[in-house]
Design goal:
The protein is an all-beta fold and about 120 residues long. It has no helices and 11 strands.
């Protein structure tokens, strides 16, 4: 099983980025996929999650209204569209796959991608 996150980069405050998480080696449509982030010196925190077949979503309060998670099961890919980025969004962003519907806890996820750096300058 492999999850590969990409799409990070350096952006000015107010800008946008779209992260992608490509999965292989698992029955993708049956897995919940979550996005988490970890800033230096901080714990990994939940950002957004999307369920498998029906595409139900949940968001952290800190990103609600600015971030949209979506998935394309045919392409085995989950996307995280981030708009109106703020300096406090700076972190390494990870995608993860699991079976527990809409879980916000990192410990509930079985598979993790390598992370992609998002840096938002003020």
């Amino acid at each position: 099983v492999q999850l590969q996150a990409c799409g990070g980069g350096l952006v000015q405050a107010g800008g946008s980025l779209r992260l992608s998480c490509a999965a292989s080696g698992l029955s993708f449509s049956t897995y919940v996929v979550g996005w988490f982030r970890q800033a230096p010196g901080k714990e990994r925190e939940f950002v957004a999650v999307i369920s498998g077949v029906f595409g139900r979503t949940a968001y952290a309060d800190s990103v609600k209204g600015r971030v949209t998670i979506s998935r394309d099961n045919a392409k085995h890919t989950v996307y995280l569209q981030m708009n109106t980025l703020k300096p406090e969004d700076t972190a390494v962003y990870y995608c993860a796959g699991g079976k527990l519907v809409l879980s916000m806890r990192p410990s509930d996820y079985d598979y993790w991608g390598q992370g992609t750096q998002v840096t938002v300058s003020s």
